[in-house]
Amino acid sequence: MRLDKLLSECGLATRSEASRAARAGKIQVNGIPALKPDWKVDPEKDEIVYCGERVLYQKFLYLMLNKPDGYVSATEDGKDPTVTELFPEEYRRQGIFPCGRLDKHTLGLMLLTNDGVLSHRLLAPKSHVAKTYAFSVKFPLSNADISALEAGVDIGGYVTKPCKVSLSNPKAGQITIVEGKYHQIKLMMQAVHNQITSLERISFGPLTLDPSLTRGTWRPLSQEEIEALRREAHTVEKNP
Length: 240
Known about the structure:
Layout: H1 3-9, H2 15-23, E1 27-29, E2 32-33, E3 48-50, E4 53-54, E5 62-67, H3 89-93, E6 97-98, E7 107-113, H4 116-123, E8 131-137, H5 143-151, E9 164-169, E10 172-177, H6 184-191, E11 196-204, E12 207-208, E13 218-220, H7 223-238
Parallel strand pairs: 7-11
Antiparallel strand pairs: 1-2, 1-3, 3-4, 5-7, 5-13, 6-7, 8-10, 8-11, 9-10, 11-12
Helix pairs in contact: 1-2, 4-7
């Protein structure tokens, strides 16, 4: 791989910035100044230092965010702040995007990545990846309401797939769905004549929201979490 391409993919420098840094002697490969941007490197074996810091190459990024209120699930928006703005510039340069959407005022777990294939497999309508939300509603939910929600309700010409609802009190609990229609949970509650007052995603497939993450903070996924996501995506691919 070309040195400038690697630095670009890592989000550390554009091709032109890498070229200038190389000419200025600010890049080393295995302790030797790399004076040309087209220097061939092996990111798996070579030690690369850019402006005094060692470069750790990752082709794909997998990041867990505890989404705060007021941010939209997009890479750019003309009106509101986006979830990608919560990450360093070098990650945005690497093309991270939200894997799925949460409403502007919905909180909690989001996966951001630049792995388009994995994201597509997890989000495809046929995938049925489970997503669990903690919720509260305006009015108490009856047993009949819960039965209706779990069986599937009409949310405007579409009947939702079966889900699981568990209550911690008559006006709060958790709901697990396997699809992601626009405003789905809010519309489901409206279908049983109720209203969501708070909503937080706490799990997505094999991922569970890290309780150490405060609102607006993030961390890279562990290798175990990445492998669990890949297994989930592989299962989806094998069982359409």
